[in-house]
Amino acid sequence: MFVMYGKWSVGNGVKSLLDKFDQECIIMDDTDRNDTILAQANQIIITPGIPPNYFVYQTYPDKIIGELDLCQSIINKQDLTSKITTIGITWTDGKSTTSRISYKILEGLCDNQEINGKHFHILLGGNFEPPISELITTIIKYRELHPTSSNDHWIIVVEVSSFMASMIDHFQCDWGIFTNFNTDHLNRHPNMKHYFESKANLLHHTHHQSFVHPSLIKPLHELGINNIVTYPLEFDLTQTNFVWTHNSMNRSAGNQCIKAVCQQLSIPYRLTDQLIRSIKPLHHRTEHIATIDWVRIISDAHGLTGQAQESAIKAFDEKVVLICGWSDKGFDFHELNETYHNHVAVAFCFGQTKEHFKEVFTKLHIPCYAYEQFDQCIYDAFSSCKKDKKILLFSPGCASFDLFHNREERADAFMKIISTL
C-alpha cells in the first residue's frame, strides 16, 4: 500500500499513475491524517511543498520516496527508458521561463512529427502543473491506445525544485541545466550549502551532460560532478518577446541544451523567426494585465525570490508602486537597497515579511505601509497609483505558503481583486 501525503495536483497525479497498475494509494494530509494507515504503508510519497523537518520525515524515514523516484521505477518496469528523453532544469531564478521556452522550441521542431524513424512527442511538467507522474500516465495511456506503434519517443522537459531534487535516489535525467544560484528557501533548507547540494543532486543523476553557469563549475566539481559544460552567457533577444539580462543568459543555456538533444536524437535544429516570435513570456512574470484609470497594473505574482523581484522592478524606467511580501524564505531584502532607492516610489507590504519590508523601506525613506489583509493592501496601493499615474507592480519576492496553497492560487486571488477595481 502507498500513501500520498499531500493533495492537490501531485497527489492526484501519483494516485492516477498507481491506479493504472491496481496499486492501492491513499491520499491524505494534515486535515485527515491517519497514523495507523501511515504505519501500515509500504511507501509514503511526499509532495514537494512539505518541509523536511515535518513529522512524516522524522517518523517514517525509511518509507519516504519522492515522486521522481516513483516515476523512474515505473519507467523501468514498463521498459520505457529507451522511449523517453528527459531534460531536467533547476536553479533559483528563471527555471519556469526556461522550461517553457525549451518546451515550445522542441514542440516547434518535432512535436507529433516522424523524423529519422522516430515519432516524437514533447511534454512539459514537474514543479508546475502537470506533475511528472501525470505525464508518465499520459505516456502509458497512449501506448495502450497504440499497441502496435513501436517508434514513438517522448522528450520530457522537467522543471525540478530543490525539494524534488533533494529526494532523488534513482531518477535519471538525460540532460540538465543549472544557470544561477542565489539565496532562497532558507525557511526549508538549514543553510545555503544544503540548498546548493539539493539542487546539485539532479546533476548527480544526469546521464549525458549538464549545462551550467561558469561560476558553478568549481563548486560542482568539488561535489564530484564532472559531466558539466558551460555555455555562452548572452543570447540575442532582439527578435524575441523577451527582455532583460537574466532571460538572455537562461535562453542561451536552454538553447545549447536543445542543440545537444537534437544532435543526439538526429532532429534537425532550425530556429525560424516565426518559431522564435511565437514563444511568449509566462503569465504573471512581469506581465501587463490591465490599465485602469491610467494606472498600468503589472503582475509578477510568480516572482518568489528577491532576485526575481529585483528583475521585475528594474524592468521599468520610472519608479513603481510596489506590492510585496508574504512567506519568509530567509532572503535579506536589505541586499536590494540600491534597487529600491532608484526604482520604488511607495511600497505596500503584507504577510509574514511585512515588518521586514517596512524596516528596509523606512531606512531608505521610502513610504511603506503594512497590511494584514491582502485585498485592502491592493486597494490602497491602487489608490496611491491613481494620484500620479504610477505603475502598480505586484512582485511578492516571497513564497505563497500559509495564506495560499501555491503561487497559482495567489495569482488568481490578485486577479480577482483587480477585477473589482
Description:
The chain has 421 residues and is of the alpha/beta class. Helices cover 40% and strands 20% of the residues. The protein contains 16 helices and 17 strands. The chain has helices spanning 8-19, 35-40, 55-59, 67-77, 95-110, 132-145, 162-166, 192-204, 217-222, 245-265, 273-278, 306-313, 337-343, 354-363, 374-388, 407-418; strands at 2-5, 25-28, 43-46, 64-65, 84-89, 114-115, 118-126, 152-159, 173-178, 206-212, 228-229, 287-292, 295-299, 320-324, 344-350, 368-371, 391-394. The strands form 3 sheets. It has a 7-stranded mixed beta sheet, sandwiched between helices. The chain has a 6-stranded mixed beta sheet with strand order 12-13-17-14-15-16, sandwiched between helices. Helix 1 runs parallel beside helix 6 (132-145) and helix 5 (95-110) packs parallel to helix 10. The longest helix has 21 residues, at 245-265. The protein is globular, with a radius of gyration of 22 Å. The model has no long low-confidence stretch (mean pLDDT 88).
Strand order of the largest sheet: 6-7-8-5-9-10-11
Q: Biggest β-sheet: count, sense, barrel?
A: 7 strands, mixed
Principal-axes geometry comes out as globular
- Secondary-structure content class: alpha/beta
Kindly state the number of beta strands: 17
Helix content: 25-40%
Could you give a quick summary of the protein structure above?
The chain is an alpha/beta fold and 421 residues long. It has helices at 8-19, 35-40, 55-59, 67-77, 95-110, 132-145, 162-166, 192-204, 217-222, 245-265, 273-278, 306-313, 337-343, 354-363, 374-388, 407-418, and strands at 2-5, 25-28, 43-46, 64-65, 84-89, 114-115, 118-126, 152-159, 173-178, 206-212, 228-229, 287-292, 295-299, 320-324, 344-350, 368-371, 391-394.
